[in-house]
Amino acid sequence: MAKKCIYCKTEIDDGSVIDFCQRCGIGVWGEKMFKAIVQSMEKSREAGDLFQGSVTDNKVAKNWKQI
Ligand SMILES: [Zn+2]
User: Fold this and answer.
1) N or C, where is the chain less crowded by C-beta within 10 Å?
2) CA of 19: how far to CAs of 2, 8, 15, 67, in Å?
3) CA 9 to ligand 1 center in whole angstroms
């Protein structure tokens, strides 16, 4: 089962920690923020602390406003 970008439905890497493609991520948050998000998500995953299920853009946006 391929994972798909929640914005443009492009197929994304199944091992990706995020639910959207790089192009959309950068479009929504900007390149710097997008990279910070991916980095933090990867760290969370390493710690076994990733959200269960899909991460919606609302959840992500909420989380990242606090930074
Ligand atoms: Zn996309």
Assistant:
1) N
2) 11, 11, 10, 20
3) 6
